[in-house]
Design brief:
Two copies of one chain form a homodimer. With 137 residues, chain A is mainly β. Chain A is built from no helices and nine strands. The radius of gyration of chain A is 16 Å and the shape is globular. The relative contact order of chain A is 0.32. Chains A, B: GO terms for molecular function: methyltransferase activity.
């Protein structure tokens, strides 16, 4: 498993959520609308994102721990610990966040999105379309 | 967008697919069964993965280009170029692969999976459960 790879953020989250302890565990559990603010260097890649699109946003959960391999599911200490790869815990060897969100508005290098549970300042790594019928991939 | 982050692979794909040109574009388009072979350092994180589970595998597409911002969708040059964040092209600033697969068998540090379109040797970054009802997260 030698070798490491370098992630370079393409943008950041701007959100009223500032404390990870206040963030909902999933975006459909009450996350407020937030902005994705992209670097001018990736502007050409954003050109076909439209309001109404359902997209997957990949983030780097930079406040997460990377030395965690077992967790109490949903932070509930009354439940037995589970292997982290069977959970959505942010704490994991490569803390990549995966968020399904809806695009509300597009404003140049900024996307307004619903249902994003990431906290303010979280680095954005990638945006991918949700897979639809084969022609839409 | 200053700062970069270091990904450390947790495993590798072992697959009969060796040429990216031969790999299907999506796993449900004819990918053969393959193995995920994990590092002993993450063994404790694998403990609750079971045959039949539907999981998301995140990979690092180490043969992809990172300087691509627009592509012909599905490689079809008769179609107009689209911003890469509206496509599933492997070529993108942070080439993270996202694959929904089914676990066929568990053998220590190895998982046999169906529907994985990644080529042999692809680094594995993370495994996450597909989100089910809230109690299952």
């Amino acid at each position: 498993m030698s070798g490491a790879y370098e992630l370079r953020p393409i943008g950041r989250v701007e959100s009223p959520l500032t404390d990870p302890a206040d963030a909902p565990r999933q975006g459909d559990e009450g996350a407020p609308p937030s902005w994705l603010v992209f670097s001018p260097t990736v502007a050409a890649g954003l050109g076909d994102l439209r309001p109404g699109a359902e997209v997957l946003v990949l983030t780097w959960l930079d406040r997460a721990r990377r030395d965690v391999l077992t967790v109490h599911p949903r932070g509930d200490r009354s439940r037995p610990e589970a292997g982290v790869f069977s959970t959505r815990s942010p704490h994991r060897p490569n803390p990549i966040g995966l968020h399904r969100v809806r695009v509300l508005a597009v404003d140049g290098l900024r996307l307004r999105v619903a249902d994003l549970e990431a906290v303010d300042g979280t680095p954005v790594l990638d945006v991918k379309p949700v897979l639809g019928p084969p022609d839409e991939r």
